[in-house]
Model the fold of this input.
Amino acid sequence: MTLDDLRALAAAIKGEVAKTVHGQDEAVDLVLTALFAGSHVLIEGPPGTAKTLLVQSLAAALRLDFGRIQFTPDLMPGDVLGANIYNFSTGAFALTKGPVFTEVLLADEINRAPPKTQAALLQAMNERRVTLDGTDYPLGEAFTVIGTQNPLESQGTYPLPEAQLDRFLFKLLIDFPEAEAEVEILRRSAERTQTGAPLIGSNPVVDGEALIEGRKALALVRLEEPILRYIVEITRATRSDPDLLEGASTRAADALAMAARAAAALDGRDYVLPDDVKKLIPPAYRHRVVVGPTAEIEGRTADSVLAAILNRVEAPR
Done:
């Protein structure tokens, strides 16, 4: 697959998603970037901002197995992974697979389950396999988790474990759309009501093989030494910034480098620019850094601290 093929494929997916989701173009672009970078995405926003609809529409545009887990406070790890159940008729244990055995997994309202259940996804996200009773079960190269969560201020939510957060390439913050976008949403809803059209009408435009080939095509995107050093300098700056208790990991830097390649490819280039890195730093690092108490009292957020770091670290020319 060429980079032109990859860009055309992404445009076709975006076109299908746009039939259902309106006013969230940036979020769709970043989800596609993560999808072709081979990583997972966490989407946070208040109820009613099309988080779940976005993922459902994306899944409908992918000719891949789709699974969904509605996270609730009483959800147990076995409800996610499955378990070996004794079969009395055969006298042997048989695996009953959980919903994690799919290719695109929607972890809906993931922060409504306790941390123990959230952590059940940790191995699956990191290794694309699940270990049950000492036996490994592969999930496939296309396996992708897209989680949605409500803001932590919402009632009945739990913070995600830091180790799990580090497995998400991006944390996207979705807010209510602009006024004109909301008008268009209402207009489309009225048309669907009148015609009886389904809410989600995306046509599949990509299968697992094409997705994997698209990921391999990112090797054609050049990531020069100055850009690599720029990523490392920004990452190391997060670890020494006085406003941050914890900085980004080496895994974060590696994931950012791959995401920058994907962003360049989707923008029609075979080389990464410093602007690609700057654009991706907030969604890639906001959930991986911890703001200190003094900065919090002053009203500073992870995004504002990261913006200050980007202003300090000189970009390559």
